[in-house]
Amino acid sequence: MVKIAPSILSANFSKLADEIKDVEKAGADYIHIDVMDGHFVPNITMGPLVVEAIRPITKLPLDVHLMIENPDQFIESFVKAGADYITVHVEACKHLHRTIQYIRSFGVKAGVVLNPATPVEMIKHVLKDIDMVLLMTVNPGFGGQRFIMSVLPKIKQVKELIDQEGLNIEIEVDGGINPETAKLCTDAGANVLVAGSAIYNHEDRKKAINEIRKTL
Ligand SMILES: O=C(CO)[C@H](O)[C@H](O)COP(=O)(O)O
Ligand SMILES: [Co+2]
Questions:
Q1: 3-213 belongs to CATH 3.20.20.70
Q2: Where are the domains of the chain?
Q3: For the CA atoms of the chain, what is the radius of gyration?
Q4: In this predicted complex, what is the ipTM?
């Protein structure tokens, strides 16, 4: 079963609680939270205080995507704020294996993220230690960008590696996911689809989620 994770990056922040309840009612599986620090990516968004405020609003797992330098420094704060998944960029971690162990030491699911230009080889050594691989299908930093087609073979590559090893790891894709691109990703092996603008730019979120689901 493919999961849909609306990214609140494209939500109306002045009524964030309603925006989250709306997608939960509409059949979302996770809430995707994009954390940006203005260093790792050229944009600044939200931090642990926002995650803490969101936690009581929804029963859905909070999928926290850290686009920040030196993520270790903030992991405990995001755990305390209520994150269920914490994903860190391979490109931002000096000691990736250590960071993953640190996330898991709190009983939280750990994921690794690859930018479009980063090869899959970078995560081979940690596959047995993670719960999720997140493949960026845009360059991180902004919502509403165009899907990068050249990431599709990487999704397949990750799926094959996971299957070869008999592991139970979610494959999430993030960026430019919409009714045109979703099935390309699930056919390649993705089972979690992050969608920001494709859901939040529509008045009817249930319809927007169903439009994606019915293509799969
Ligand atoms: O991580 C992200 C950007 O760095 C966002 O999750 C992503 O861009 C979602 O937005 P959209 O679906 O509009 O592309
Ligand atoms: Co994201």
A1: yes
A2: 3-213
A3: 16
A4: 0.98
